[in-house]
Amino acid sequence: MTERWVPKVKVTTEKVAVHLKMGHALIRQRKYADALVEFQKARALRPQLPLVHLFIGDVYLEQQRYADAIAEYEEALRQNPHNAAAHVKLGNAYYEQQRYPEAVTEYGAALRQDPKLAVVHVKLGNVHLAQEQYAEATAAYETALRLNPQLGGARLKLARVHAAQHRPDDAAAQYETALRFDPKFALAHLMLGVLRADQERYEDAVAAYRAALAINPKLAPAHAKLAEAFERQGRYDDAVAAYEAALKANPSLAAVQVKLGDLHAKHGQHDEAARAYATVLKANPDLARVQVRLGDAQLGQGRHADALAAYGAALKQKPDLLGAHLGLGDAHVARKEYGDAMKAYQSALKINPRSAVAHAKLGDVYFAQSENGHALSAYRAAARLDPKLARTHLGLGDVYAAQGQRAEAEAEYQAAALLDPELAAARVGPMEGDPTSIPSKGKRPASA
After folding, report:
1. Cα separation of 152 and 187, whole Å?
2. Residue-range domain boundaries for the chain
3. 302: Cα separation from own chain's centroid
4. Domain over 354-448 is classified CATH 1.25.40.10
């Protein structure tokens, strides 16, 4: 019995199909390197098949191998110059590299093949939006929406353009239209909430964020934005709970963990703040500004040696970080190491000679050592740079009171009380009881 003859082209086509199917299965598993091997096997069998080059280009794009992706897409276009999909994918590669003129050219070529490709109009709008070309972006998004009014993503982008142009009502109208088409569009609820928060309509923002979370309880950005709205409303406990919910949904959100720490620090909860910052630094030890925040929290805890270590770690990473020098000075002041504190504040002033806070802190050190003349000069320098810095007026009041200049002292203390009643009330001495009484030296909080 003779064996049935099967055309070689058919066998090859079947093998190519197997490799392509296997490659797509691997992509779904995010095994891009393995998928690439399968697609390359398919290309070896059928190098003149444009689709294979597109699939290989997609893997390269996912791996951020942009030059390789572009080469594959260009090969697909060499084989078929009228391949709209190849033009779109090539445009995507250019967009990712911020090569916007080339991206516009490729998206335009795709639209010449088929002007009704709504998604490509959206991509064209994205290119214009990235360049803040708002009129062109608006036209592209509106064209996309005329072709397909249910493109929720295009509506969100159009709303973003309106918001950037300070047209909040138009932006809100787009979000609300998107929600009429799809009431369960969680991202539209979220973005509407952001818009309302920007308008300081916090109750409306809270309602929008809660609507998003009712649809998707694990939407971490909605929890984080809800926390920010609660903060603005002065709802400390609710804000803490919302930040914690965001971190439960996505523990890797370092920025949210920092905001939680900042919230605790603002309310004097130094233990909780320190824990939040330490959590961030465990995963991201090179964040110098978070090291400074940790130092501030540890200073608030009375852990002066730990604070010094945190500020030192920050300065090792960023020697010109002003806040780290100021914090280092504060830690030395807390330990009554005035010489070292002075060096730290002077280093801060070398970085920024116009730092009113640094001048004021330097004045504190001089005053603590009874060097009233130098203290007066430092406080006056701070006052010239920032007349609204309450701590400077407190310092000036202290110096005048110590020199027996009661009228001048009273005037400075009253100025401080007008600028920052809480800081003034926290002082032990002149601001308690008799406003002209001589203050007890060294009573001012080091970090005030």
Report:
1. 9
2. 252-346, 354-448
3. 30
4. yes
**CATH superfamily name and code, 252-346:** Tetratricopeptide repeat domain (1.25.40.10)
CA distance to 7, 183, 362, 386, 418, per residue, from 390 (Å): 90, 50, 15, 9, 8
pLDDT digits (tens, 9 = 90+) for 62-82: 999 999 999 999 999 999 999
Q: Using H for helix, E for strand and C for coil, what is the string for 320-335?
A: CCHHHHHHHHHHHHHC
Q: Which of 123-137, 181-195, 229-243, 410-424 has the lowest mean pLDDT?
A: 410-424
Q: pTM for the whole thing?
A: 0.83
Nearest to 38 by CA among 49, 27, 50, 30: 27
Amino acid at 327: G
Return the DSSP state at 170.
H
Q: What span, in angstroms and rounded, lies between the C-alpha atoms of 378 and 121?
A: 60
Least Cα distance to 280 among 268, 269, 270, 292 occurs for 292
**Own/partner pairs for 96-102, CB < 8 Å, 24+ apart?**
96/61, 96/64, 96/66, 97/66, 98/130, 100/127, 100/130, 100/131
- Write the CA distances from 183 to 150, 186, 218, 269, 296, integer angstroms: 12, 8, 18, 40, 45
